[in-house]
Amino acid sequence: MITLKRILLIICFLSPIWSIAQQKFSISGSIKDITSGEELIGAAVLVKELPRTGVVANAYGFYTLELPLGEYTLRFQYTGYELKEQKVKLDKSMKLNVELKPKNSELKEVEITAEKPDESLSRVTMGVEKLSAKEIKMIPVLFGEADLLKTLQLLPGVKSAGEGNTGFFVRGGSADQNLILLDEAPVYNASHLLGFFSVFNSDAVKEATLYKGTMPTEFGGRIASVLDVKMNEGNQKKLNVLGGVGLIASRLTVEAPIVKDKSSFIVSGRRTYADIFLKLSADSNLRKSTLYFYDLNAKLNYKISDEDRIFVSGYFGRDNFGFSDQFQFDWGNATGTVRWNHLFSDKLFSNTSLIFSDYNYKIKISASDFDVEIGSTIRDWNLKQDYQYYKSNKSTIKFGWNSIYHTFMPGEVDGVDFLSNLTNDRRYAWENAAYVSHQYQFNKKLSIDYGLRLSTFSYIGPGSVYEFDKDGNITSERQAASGEFIKNYINPEPRLSINYRIDSLQSIKGGYSRTVQNLHLLSNSTSGNPTDIWIPSSNNVKPELGDQYSAGYFRNLKGNKFEVSAETYYKWMANQIDYRNGAELILNQEVEGELVYGTGRAYGLELLLRKKTGKFTGWIGYTLSRTERKFDDIDDGKYFVARQDRTHDLSVVAMYDLNNKWAISANFVYYTGNAVTFPSGKYEMDGQVINYYSERNGYRMPAYHRLDLGATYYRKRTDTYESSWSFSVYNAYGRENAYTISFRESDTNPGQTEAVQLSLFRWIPSITYNFHFK
Amino acid sequence: MRNSIIHSIFAIISVIALSSCEKVIDIDLNESDNKLIIEGKINNDGECSVKLSQVKNYNQDNEFPGVTDAIVVINDDQGNLDTLEQGIPGMYYSDEIIGTPGATYSLYVSWNNQVYTSVCRMPELVQIDSLTIRKEVFFVDTTTIAIVHFNDPGAVNNYYRYLYTINATLNRDYNVESDRFYNGLSVETRIPIFNGGPNGGPGGGGPGGPGNPGPGPLNPDTLRLEMWGIDQSMELYYRTLSTTIQAASGQQAAPANPESNITGDALGYFSAYTISKASILIE
After folding, report:
1. Is the confidence at residue A71, as pLDDT, over 90?
2. Which of B21, B59, B202 lies closest to A759 in CB terms?
């Protein structure tokens, strides 16, 4: 008996899953928009009779609520939609699919993705930021082309990689340490035109969630953040055609049901034509150039039954840069996802995905006597299985696994015979992960979410395997057999989040996460190039590790109209990568010899005040932070500030609905200049003046600040047709922000050297016409 | 190549933006430590010289006086040793050390209570077989390409640097490469010939230093080309030096000093190299 009692005690104390049996029934179903049939991710289901009992629909718009026998009034809520109350008599488990009606189409345009009104307090994890397509479209950006990644940079803890650039840094991480997912498929290069545009067409995006703190266990593979972008699913009710014509790009989207309420599709395309301006240029070289990109998003969904649903989605985008027929340079991503949602029961939800992702670039040069083609590719096949088990309203278990096969073609050369041996070995890797996490609410105040992700990474033959000494010289070389496991890594990744709800208006949260990254981007430019290549962890390159501790205080004011939060974090990073002086990263079979390894640390404080509802919405975000790296060979092994270190970073975003016709918006950003390396002296060598450098990132670029203004005029708004004009001015007061600072001999004062600042964009106006046939 | 692509894309984007602008700004730069600069050369063409100078503060003028109070010694693996004599201030010469392919040379510089040393082996001589010329339209400009024909020895790794003189101007671009892709083969190396202006300093031909002298038609003249056989450490030095020069344009993530083959915290190099010369008339 003692043993049985002990077992019971152990179960009671260690396993929060354990509970006393009570007759309970579940009610489950989907929550959708009544006009489009789109799932409403994060819509709330509350029980009127039981205050503080409620759940939130998951990423597929599916909810499960468990209640004792009885009669209840369920309230379905989603900001921007009319509240729907439904009485239910619960004497057996039941299904209830609900459709909500948008409150008022005028308002809808500016409403932020809605959640439970106190979602920011009740959500267990911290460091989560959400943006809806509507917000993305309202906020003015460069060239008037609404852009998810640029809007994301206005949130605290997220920093832009540079003027007009879509690259971003999260809490001291590098740009390649963000996992960017489009319908679960990783996007390896999320930018167009050297980063001035992102690959996300705002008409095709439903919602984006950024995890900058503790990552949920179903995500892994990068150490700084996950950006989870979901594509629109297509209107289930009727045909919609929408689009826009702008100064440099046009968009067109068609969505319609195939079988009403059962299946639908969406196709969305975008093409820039900025290069037509080049024809006006006086420079004959520019007149012969082409430079454009296009995107295509498509998605199909089919509801087989109440229990089964299939989604097929894909993205294809390409940049093209060319010069007559002598030079062609094109690059882009292709992704594809086939997803099957299945309900085993009203408590067990399953998602199975087969995912494909490809990024490549090609350079083609035709000279009079030879043609040569250089290219590089990374390609993934990925099978993913996720389960969500709703044990009770207080307890949800998530578990699953994921298996990815990576193929790397770091450098392929074709054309001239003598150049063909420039082609680098292809490389292969197999990445696996299994995870389980449990979210549990102990009582009204305390909830936790804890879990473990176990990830493995195998570097697989065939291919040349090198070993290097500490100076990067090859000490041994051998050929690995096909299918040989050259190197294996196994890493446990514990994750923990705790939420203590002090009262109905405030909560404190804490979290810890370990993250592992086995793919590394090699890039030695400041802005990121299409030719940057991804390499796997190997016998030389060890997995990058990240440990993040975070804590925060959250408070809602004025009946949940305002959210205030303060989050702090400390992050430690191992096996960070830098390059030897003069490293050759392209077409270099022995590129691993060019790498050096170090550690990093980052810490900061993020403050956010946000107004989410009403005619006036927006936020003020401020980040105080420090980001450092340490390498044995740089600055005598001392910590130095990383390039993306910015002490102060402020953004103010405001959107206001003036009336039925006009909506206006503005945003202002201010941040400390990047850390940079400037010369501390000069000397003469071979008859030339050469700059002398003494310490890494010892200087600062000038502080950056900018104001953007936007306005939308609704020309016509009826139930079947809507059209509007969007106007914006980027950098409205014409601040000359430094894009680069270069050093050269003075023209006016020969024999002296001077610093020259290049500024890119001042007063960039734009205008876009948008239409929508419903 | 890659940089020129990126520069073109930026050029196009600035045309679109119609608003990029440049201005001279003041930056408060640190005082530099006045490190020693060593340029040591020994070749099979009769030159054995060492030039010594120092780093200056950035805001000072571009006059770099030589270091005159140093002791400079070079010896070889044949037992020859010579203390170099100073000619013009900061230039030290030897008449006794004769550069011979295959020999190894050591440099000692003693200055300011510090000793700086370096060792460099002169590679075996690789001769140019022939030099030919072709003209190609690359983008809109006609570019003259010099083609250097030679046989690369297969037994060892070789490293080459090319320099040329045309229209009375020595082009000092760092045209440097290794035989990584053609070890032991018969090789044709293509070198675009530019009408570059004087390589006065960073910005001699625009930002980025002498890497960007303008293409364009050449005046008829004799092209005199030199192929240097250099040591591996010098290939790294020249490669990192051209990165340092390009870094002046501000696009590089982390500019650094070139990788020197001299021990003792000096900047510069000690190079033992072979020279093979050829010339051709360009019409």
Report:
1. no
2. B21
